[in-house]
Amino acid sequence: MSGETLEFSGCNFFRIRLAYSILSGRPIRIVNIRKNDDRPGIRDFEAKLIGLLEKVTNGTKVEISRTGTQVTFRPGMITGGIVNVDCGTDRCISYFLEPLILLSPFCKLAMTIKLKGVTNAPGELSVDGMKASWLKVYNKFVLNDEKLDIKIQCRGLKPEGGGVVIFTAPIVKTLRPVKRQQVGKVCKIRGQAYVSKVTPSLAYRMIDAAKKAMHGYIADVFIAVDQRKGDAGGASPGYGLFLTAETTEGVVYQAEAISRPKGEPGNPILPEDIGIEAGHALLQQIYMGGALDSSAQVLASTFMTLCPKDVSHFLYGPLPMYSVHTLRHLKQFFEIEFKMEDYRKVQKEDEADLRTGSLDKALITAVGMSLVWRILRDEIEAGNIEIDTLNAEPDALQDIKKVFPNIFANEFVSSIIEHESTLKNSTSLISHESPIQSTADYHVSSYPTESFEPFETLGEIETIGTTENEDSDCEIIYSGPAVFLPLAMPKAELFDKDYGLSEQEKREESERLKAAKQYRKALLSGKTKKRKQKRQSKIYREIVYEKLSTKFAIPPEDFRDVVDEIMEEEFPDHQIETGAIMALQHESEMMLTKMMCLASHLADYADRETLRKKDIDFLKFLMSKNMEGCSFAM
């Protein structure tokens, strides 16, 4: 990838272009926006979208021409945070949610966005649809989905809106590659008949009509009624029906039908017609098939691109035009190509008899390119990482010129990494798996010193500081000023050459490592400075004698479900015996118990009764050093 400005024409795919500009770090220019329209230029909802993206980023610059027909967008760093936005009533809130969901895993702060506007609108994907189908795909790519949710506080229909939606997303260290090819058979259908400021009898009429439309397909059908009154029902009357179908493999399809908005010309749509329309739409979506809903193909394609450098594949149903253009935009922004295979050629023989719908499916395969290089560029622009071009090898210097064309002019406004392979022999600043390489291997201060707490003393031992971000697991050994770094500087060379560290700083570094090693010995031997009387509790005896009680602490059924899910996604060609699962649970619980015991020693050493996150962080630091050759010895 290069740092030049990409140029597009027209107003189509406006939100996806802005989102990909932020993710890739590439500035864009959009021209000829409705230039032949009676009202040329961008609309109010597009201006609101630009304002929303400015709030969740830092340093974004936007230039809009006087006529509004040209927009220049220079992206900044993704920050996230808590934001309240009024989306207006021109477009559904899902229009604004789409780029937010794509950006949410890569934010500096956990994202909590409150959006006000229209939750359900004819001809648009509703917020209910995104919650049911998009978050299901989102969960496949992340390990931490604890705070991932879309909550509809108030339902708002056109023309007045009045809906309120809260979107929350956790910070994700990295996405994981996904392999989803199995579709399964539909096992249940669920739905929601919502009515706002109208009689609830309309909901039951929609439910009866929908069940008749799907009669004979499946028996497990349940549709609830969502009646909203007062502020919870928004500012406009209306009704609609939202349906989902879930397969035995966890795939969710969705469909929806809604009444005509108040004041819109035309005859009102009967509840029976809405029920039949929603039922037929769901059956059509089931027939199209795929390992995800067709509306979520955009999300899957984007996350497959941003995964670490590993192979991901997803089985898509027939690709809608929006998905086709999404793949084209991904190639323009990230220079990544997808391999598309006809499902007829790759399906297994036993799957042919399952009658899983249309054969016009495609197996999409991609190799992720990760956001490591985007993060590296942001850190260099911020002045937290500086590259020593004076001491670099000639070959490495040529690579620098390719990936950072403006480095010798001290300009990093539009520089960006071209490809990972360019740096494979010249730099080891950052690993492919983690956004920031651990300083256990390379001495890199990757964040400004102001973002770290001062060193805190535990007895005679100084522990390292941690970032203000509670979810960050980046360990920092040196928290001094930014220094010039060579392209590759292993820890062994840290004290052989002078890269800006004073003798005092080198001694402090050596003393910290020595103190950590001494404390680990005391920790493992039980001879901590302020060790309290040894606990003779059941949990302590289990640790000492390497025994567990007759019952597991974690319910075996829940543990088995987790293991089965991991085996299905990561090792689909292998199986695991029940005895192996029990042995795995035994060792997992022993490891957890020992970690808690070691952390309690740390708390005793600091003369406090509460285990804190920094205790676990310090244990991770000690074990990453592996000073005694083992991690969990007692």
From TrEMBL:
A GO-annotated cellular component: nucleolus
Compartment(s): Nucleus, Nucleolus
All copies of domain Core Histone H2A/H2B/H3, residue ranges: 537-617
RNA 3'-terminal phosphate cyclase domain span: 7-340
GO BP term, example: endonucleolytic cleavage of tricistronic rRNA transcript (SSU-rRNA, 5.8S rRNA, LSU-rRNA)
Main location group: nucleus
CDD domains tied to this protein: RNA_Cyclase_Class_I (cd00875)
GO molecular function: DNA binding; protein heterodimerization activity; RNA endonuclease activity; structural constituent of chromatin
InterPro entries to which the protein is assigned, alphabetical: H2A/H2B/H3, Histone-fold, Histone_H3/CENP-A, RNA3'-term_phos_cycl_insert, RNA3'_phos_cyclase_dom, RNA3'_phos_cyclase_dom_sf, RNA3'_term_phos_cyc, RNA3'_term_phos_cyc_type_2
Keywords: Nucleus, Ribosome biogenesis
Residues in RNA 3'-terminal phosphate cyclase insert domain copies: 182-286
Pfam families xref list: Histone, RTC, RTC_insert
NCBIfam families: 18S_RNA_Rcl1p
Similarity comment: Belongs to the histone H3 family. Belongs to the RNA 3'-terminal cyclase family. Type 2 subfamily.
Protein name per its UniProtKB record: RNA 3'-terminal phosphate cyclase domain-containing protein
Organism: Caenorhabditis latens
